[in-house]
């Protein structure tokens, strides 16, 4: 009897234990299923968020591109370096400008996990392909957009736009193909930094400037500090100063600060604090950033460059200096930049037949540029035109290089170069090895009758610019749109 009772109790205990085990297994299964659903839901939300943001930034934008500049190759190749230009522009209504005041060319190499970049000063002198005379490089995009809009108004198919002309110009100057562009406006720059909680920057010196016309107010003290979006924008854009010309910032200063802030943004975005704000940063960035990178290319770069930080970014020195209303690049430094970028792209030598050396100031131009920067504006056109002989039998003399135009008193070109910008000693006219010096194609301006080139000048062959007949007063048509 006792033995039977013991067996019954043991059987009941086993039954009770089996029931508990089944309940535990059910709970574990339910919890696992819930976890999977939660993780899957979060992963799906993350994927949807990223995909939605990429759809926005890669969507064709009428303000930056047209079918002329659309990229046909949208695939990503992990072993192929990719070049791109970062364009920063001020799209505020009160400025009414299409100039790209920030221009940085970069090469991303997925194999070396390295990004090499160089800043191009906004006032760099260039010859735009198909255009006459010299221009500042920040007006190239505006010229291309003017061409596109003019063609569209005339019901013609555009052959050029701002992006295509910018890529073409940089291609000839640097000797590498420019595969893509990334455009961001100043409001987006400020908003991204604000969403990240600011960036840490070591301000080199006191910067003070106020311009009520566009509501610009810069007041920064030297030292390591956290800058918000407005302060960071003022830091990279500071040019003039309330205290006078000796406190002005040079193009070298601005380029260095641009690179410094970009590195600070990269480090902050990759930090724990930055990762927790990735969604809000993506929301803000998608509204202000546009690119012709494809979604697959962006995803591929993001995967290959995971863990990316400022230590993997190499900045190249451009040797920029100011003279006579333009910024020039030193010959040796430009050659070094070209070689470095070509090596990163994996191209042997230049991919263009004739390099565009317009950013280099030749020896024969130095005296003219120096005198132009110190000259005042004079109105002597009529007197000189009247005194000029109409007929002469003398042999034609070699024309002097074009004199950079005198600028109005309140413009940047008429300001004394910042004290930290030294003009290099006598440079020889740059001519690539094995080539003969190119013939001077610009007409020599009549003294006292030089007008500053407008931001928009039509290419050679278009009839919107009137060319004066011989012995008639020389006039220049402003073709700005």
CATH topology of one domain: Aminopeptidase
Radius of gyration: 30 Å
Describe the strand arrangement of the main beta sheet, using strand numbers.
11-6-1-2-3-12
Q: What fraction, in percent, of the residue positions are helical? A: 25-40%
Terminal Cα span:
111 Å
Individual helix count: 12
Number of strands: 14
Q: What proportion strand?
A: 5-15%
Unreliable spans are: 36-47, 376-433, 437-481
| The CATH class of one domain | Alpha Beta
Structural class: alpha+beta
What is the general shape?
A: globular
What are the secondary-structure elements, in order, as H or E?
Answer: HEEEEEHHEHEEEEHHHHEHEEEHHH
Query: What do we call the CATH homologous superfamily of one domain?
Result: LCP protein
Which CATH-level-2 architecture of one domain? 3-Layer(aba) Sandwich
Average the pLDDT over all residues and give the rounded result.
74
Largest sheet: 6 strands, mixed
Family: Belongs to the LytR/CpsA/Psr (LCP) family.
Pfam family, one: LytR_cpsA_psr
InterPro entries: LytR/CpsA/Psr_CW_biosynth (IPR050922), LytR_CpsA_psr (IPR004474)
Protein name: LytR family transcriptional regulator
